[in-house]
Design brief:
single chain; alpha+beta; SH3 type barrels; 3-stranded antiparallel sheet; 7 strands
Amino acid sequence: MTKSPYLLLLASVLLLAGCGREEFQDLRDFVKNSGANMRGKVAPPPEIKPYEPFNYDNSAGLPDPFKPRKDAKKAEHPGLNQPDMERRREALEEFPLESLKMVGFLHQGKVGHAIIRSPDSKLHRIRAGNYLGQNFGQITEISDTEVTIKETIQDSAGDWSERMSSLQLIE
């Protein structure tokens, strides 16, 4: 009786060993051999050229980009175009010029007035001499289709300059 459990165990092991087939052997061989002949190639890095400093002398006619460029006229009069900082601000100076819209024109006596809509949807009647925009813009001329504005802006060197802008009538 002691032999029968061992015999039964031996028979089952042999039976299971005979059932095991190599049905995925071709897949195992493919995976094993697929990377055998592959070698990665890395391109060499590009050649680094030595740094050549550039001398900014005025003999070539090029200005030094690291020195401020100022007009001789402005250097003589540094506050030449400076706006009046003490002047009382008008209502339309609160808004950027790009956000204001000209929506109408009217004549009152001999004076032309423009109707301007601000971003808060309020309508304002303006005439030549009034101010608007955030760059000290003063209205120089009003026609039935356009408002011409002279703005005074400050550059990075602290000098003030003037530029012309306009608002077109929206139809």
